[in-house]
Amino acid sequence: MIDMMAPVLALLTAAALGLGLWRVRGTRRAERETERLQDRIWRISESEDRYRALVAATTEIIVQRDARGRITYANEDFARLLGREPIALIGSQDDLEILDRNAVEIGPDGVRRLEAQVRAADGRARWFAFVEMPVAHGDATHWLRAGRDVTARVEAIRSRDAALERAEAASVAKSRFLATVSHEMRTPLNGILGMADLVLGTELNPEQRTYVEAVRTSGQALLGLIDGVLDFSRIEAGRLDLAAEPFDLPALSEGVVELLAPRAQDKGIEIALDVTEDFPAAVLGDADRVRQILINLAGNAIKFTERGGVGVSLSFVRTAAGGEVVLAVADTGPGIPEERLPILFEEFEQGDGSASRSHEGTGLGLAITRRLVTRMGGRIEAESRLGRGSTFRILLPLAEVAGIGDGGRVPLPPLSARRCLIVADSPFQAPYLARSLSRAGAATVIVDSLESGLDALSGAAFDVVLADRALGDGAVRQIADAARACGVRTSLVLLSPFDRRGFGAPGAAGFDGYLIKPVRPRSLFERLLASTGPVEAAAAPPEAPSHTGSHLRVLLAEDNPINALLATRALERLGATVVHAADGVEALERFESDGPFDLALIDVRMPRLDGHETARRIRAAESGCAHRLHLVALTANAGREDEIAARAAGFDGFLAKPLNLKLLPPLLERQSARAA
Prior knowledge:
elongated
């Protein structure tokens, strides 16, 4: 029996042991799972603690709402803005009172951003930058909003904008003030300069002419001061508009050089221009501003140069981006101290910075030039050596314009077998002429004195001789005699416009002709290309005949009696019949009762009815009529915006005050052609 129970007991024992082991293992697994759950709960709790600590520590306001807008969480800062406790907000739909807001920006991820001004519980208004984003909460979506206080930034921006508006308003007021002052100053200046021109056209003895010319010179100096201040003010106010039109820069530069030549020749110095052979016929830019830059630089160089001269040169650098104009103005003046070069382009500075400086001027010319160059995207460079002179170099990104023509240039004459001698003590004109001749293939020699010229003629054969009268009448006559004795084919004398009357006929002095300084390459080549007879190159154009405006009836609307008298006398001298009106209302009455007129000159600023409104009413009255009166605005404000405003009012032309009487003959000639 015992033997039979042994296996059963063993089996029961094993089962009991297995069950115990299973229970032990289950207990251990449960313990391990419990440990893992506890670890997870601890980590979650720790993470939530960190999250709550971060939320509590942040300076931003944070609130979370469910789909119905009920608050599920709010931090202390949000609750403080509402004047509540965070726990009291849970489940409510309380929100901040919005006073102002900008547009909501919604990103592709659904995040919404906006800035809003809200009222806090203490009554203060604060600006916040809000970010709202969706947050998954089980099967539902909650919205989490965070806001950062940006009151200081918004107020700073608004203060800046308000200051900018005040500055712009002040700038506009200053511009209006300057425009008014400009008109009020130019109006009497117009009378002074115009009357001086009228008097200079009458019979005067030398003493009287000297006095009248002094009046005109002083008036022109004052006009230059006004223009400089106005230009600087326009640039400072950012009211300078630049044109982008094709223009012939070499021709423009020739005009500027010839304009400044009398000023240089009055001082006994020269001014000359050199243009590289490959310079484009036309470039794209603002011709008026480039002219102003050139006048400022060359005029400044003339002012400070007492001996020698001023040289203007043009070259063009073609680049992958288009091209760059290099405009250089060099002089043989006293030079500029090295320590003054860095401040040379500041306002009211001159090369001579001493209190007892020997040259007048505001010191605005170079400052205006630098600002114009910068505005055009260029740069300006200056180099100088004391006692040797200065060079100012302007680099402007002006693109070449193709298909405009040849810029009025003449073909280079075939001079490959010609030898030329230039006798001139000239720092710029002689080298520039030699360069032009060399481009045509001539072999050129320059000497700077009578003795050197005679030695050159005695030692070699020349086909062309150019002698500068600045060497003296006796010297150039000896050069002419020696040239004829050597069989020179062509001999020319270089003269300033003032020299021509005193020198007499070039043939009487042994020359074939003369060239007026500054010499244009065109004049030089035309003279050399002439096949028969002497040619007086660059002769002054004849004066306009007094009957330029014959049979033209002109309506003049001008409230200033002196300017009205000036314009009336100048027009009557040209043969026109003038009907004067003292203001816009009277001008309209004259237009209706005394018409038709061929031309109307109308001052823009007049009492009762200004020039712009007068022009508009004249145009309205002409509606449906075949005859259209040619209207020309007279204004002391000569800016581009003023011209645009005049044309918008119906004007066909635009003349700046002080009125340049030399512009009246061509104006009447064009109108006579229209009337014919």
